[in-house]
Amino acid sequence: MSRRETGRGAFGVGLANLASRISPFLIRDLKMSDALPPVELLVCTTCRAGQPTDIEGPRPGTQLFNALKASDLPAHVTVKPVECFSNCDFGCSITVRGGDARWTYVYGNFTGADDAELVHDGVTKYAATTDGLVPWRERSIHFRKNCIARIPPLEIPDVKS
Q: Whole-structure pTM over 0.90, yes or no?
């Protein structure tokens, strides 16, 4: 059966299944704004994920980038290749950022193209927010445990001391 016949997307997840996996908080954020700000998914293409430097062929970071570029990400998400996040000891790395009001995240310990679905899921949840804050329990274990950096938005909200 084709994806069209089963109603499943590029990663075998049907729309009903996807809707059941999205937090009410993310749905609220989607309803709050008709057009969410663009999101950039930056993928380190020089990452070797612990492989020796003499391995032939594309590096795991490039393989992850290619798999994500070919995936069905939300329309307002752009995948861009970058060179070296200087996180070489911790697998392939990505950065997710989007607009002046969203938090930016750097994640590591991805292994390459095999993790494309995992990244797709995390980035889709991030892209559905207005502030970049995906509720903790809505994040996959990998995204909870492998955050390298969390960078505040350019427009820092007032915080009561």
A: no
